[in-house]
Write a structure and sequence with these properties.
single chain; 455 residues; mainly alpha; 0% strand
């Protein structure tokens, strides 16, 4: 897909690639990645989705930990090697890559704020390590936009989530000491807790659902989808189950109103309704909802926790405590919260509160602007981008939105944040392409341009 980057040279090459007077040439996306690059890219996607094997053999007694196992220094070393290798391949077109880095300024600002947050962090080491890991994940999202079409990426991810599904079931049934909870009632799979597995499985359902119509991946996608649904049910995670149901409903609404003038209103109403439903669950204003979902009136302590977090947030309101530095154990600021909450929460279980703790009001504002801009552009993308892939960005933003109500959000080293980055950059590039043309391309012509540039 070709775009302008604001420079004469790049704009000229972009115009050349989509001129109706000559065959389209993929000027901003290099030639099809070679075998080695595709193999490294696949391993990287698998790593982001499942972690390393050293992270799969963890026994958590009870439900004391609700955090994703971050692994040790080996994880960072391997991650840097994989990312560095892929970036080496991407440098065949440095101008195009640089354009993608700076095209979404809110994403760039948010990433830089996180990267520099160790300077005021209460735990320099933790903030530095996790900020670097998150930055690498962000760069990987930009890389996959530069080197693959959205359809190609979805197809590769369907295989990744199929493998992840098989691994999770293998751990549940063949290695129950690792794959089941301490009570033996909940699936943990290769993750450390049921909420992490449920979140991974919900994303697996989303990705494989989009890949089912692809002829070469249909069986894998269908099997991966059904297996991921079973994993969601096996975790007994009500958050994951509700998110999956709401995402399915939102997807139907988006597909129904896709070509209608009421699309914008339908999206906004649907998102607000889904958010309000999540908010009602979180605040438990309607007792019958929590009874229906099998949760207590405080949502397992979440609403009490949120009240306790107001004081620490007010102590560092501008820039917060540094990226993921607040929840650092008994020697961290979180010890005061743990004294008041005997279930030892590892996060704020709410994305806005989590970002206020980590990055203050500055970080929360940038994050909100970034997500709103992405959502609005995804509506435009949905209306004008042909094919099933046109639904993918708005579905990912809905996924991120739903997991921001009672969980800490998706901004972490993982495949979900990488896909949010992909959608942020891809939708911006799509709009720039149309602006460069001076008018929206007809769906048939645009689909042909995208098809040629993906091969």
């Amino acid at each position: 897909m070709s775009l302008t980057a604001g420079t004469p040279t790049f704009a000229a090459s972009a115009a050349e690639s989509i001129s109706p007077d000559r065959p389209a040439r993929p000027r901003t996306r290099p030639a099809r990645p070679g075998l080695v690059e595709r193999a490294v890219g696949f391993v990287t996607l698998l790593f982001l989705t499942t972690g390393m094997p050293t992270e799969w053999f963890v026994i958590i007694e009870g439900d004391a930990s609700d955090d994703v196992n971050a692994g040790g220094s080996l994880v960072i070393v391997v991650f840097i090697m994989l990312t560095g290798t892929l970036l080496f391949f991407s440098m065949t077109r440095p101008k195009a890559m640089m354009y993608l880095v700076v095209c979404e300024l809110s994403l760039l600002a948010f990433s830089l704020l996180i990267l520099f947050s160790p300077l005021w962090s209460v735990d320099f080491s933790t903030s530095s390590r996790r900020a670097v890991a998150l930055s690498l994940t962000t760069v990987l999202g930009i890389y996959f936009v530069a080197r693959y079409s959205l359809e190609q990426l979805i197809n590769r991810l369907s295989i990744v989530f199929f493998i992840a599904m098989l691994l999770n079931f293998a751990w549940v049934f063949a290695l129950p000491q690792y794959g089941l909870s301490f009570t033996g009632d909940d699936f943990l799979g290769i993750t450390t807790n049921r909420n992490s597995l449920g979140k991974q499985a919900v994303l697996g359902c989303v990705v494989t659902a989009f890949a089912i119509r692809t002829r070469n991946h249909r069986f894998i996608a269908m099997t991966g989808f059904l297996g991921s649904v079973l994993l969601v049910l096996g975790t007994n995670s009500k958050t994951s189950l509700v998110s999956l149901i709401l995402l399915g409903g939102l997807l139907l609404v988006f597909a129904t109103f896709r070509s209608r003038k009421q699309l914008f209103g339908a999206v906004i109403v649907s998102e607000v309704t889904a958010g309000l439903f999540g908010l009602l669950i979180a605040t438990a204003n309607l007792a019958f909802i929590t009874d229906l979902l099998g949760r207590d009136i405080t949502l397992t302590g979440r609403t009490v926790l949120w009240g306790h977090l107001i004081e620490p947030i007010s102590e560092r309101p501008l820039l917060g405590y540094g990226w993921e530095a607040y929840w650092g154990g008994w020697g961290s600021p979180a010890h005061e919260i743990w004294l008041k909450n005997s279930w030892f929460p590892p996060t704020a279980h709410n994305a806005p509160l989590e970002y206020l703790l980590a990055l203050g009001a500055v970080g929360l504002t940038i994050w909100a602007v970034m997500m709103v801009r992405g959502l609005l552009r995804s509506i435009h993308y949905l209306r004008n981008r042909p094919g099933l892939a046109g639904l993918f960005p708005i579905t990912m933003f809905s996924y991120a939105f739903l997991y921001s109500v009672t969980e800490a959000g998706v901004v972490q080293r993982g495949i979900d944040w990488m896909l949010v980055v992909v959608c942020l950059v891809e939708t911006r590039r799509f709009i720039d392409l149309q602006k460069q043309q001076g008018r929206p391309l007809k769906p048939g012509r645009l689909q042909e341009r995208l098809r040629r540039q993906a091969t």
